[in-house]
TrEMBL record:
InterPro entries: Rhodanese-like_dom, Rhodanese-like_dom_sf
Gene3D superfamilies named among the record's database cross-references: Rhodanese-like domain (3.40.250.10)
A Pfam family that the UniProt record links to this protein: Rhodanese
Protein's organism: Roseicella frigidaeris
Rhodanese domain location: 18-124
Name recorded for this polypeptide: Rhodanese-like domain-containing protein
Amino acid sequence: MPGVPDISPTETWEALRADPEAVLIDVRTDAEWNFVGLPDLTGIGKQTLLVPWQLYPSMQVNGSFPDHLHKAGLTATHRLYFICRSGARSLAAGQAAQAAGFPQAFNVADGFEGPVDGEGHRGTVAGWKAAGLPWRQR
């Protein structure tokens, strides 16, 4: 297995815009989607697929994760871009996707919010929000 490459949020946005087979999969929890916000792909005629990697509040790994990808109609031809808060869960999700027969998996580096800044806040240093890409509250 070649591994799951990191790709910047801006490169992800460009790939999603240019490639009809590209899909953004947000693997955060319901709580994060509801309280932190979501990538907004409506401007490019797409929707973010929401499939939690871990189930809130237990944070157990979602054993049905690959099934959700298949049920969403995804195939080996799709390029799958996984995003979480900062890039760790999305990497694990990408690895699981590859193991389940989705070879074109990418990890969105720094995730939706990225690392904390000097004042302990996320969303300002790196990641989807810091890159100025479209997002919305749920």
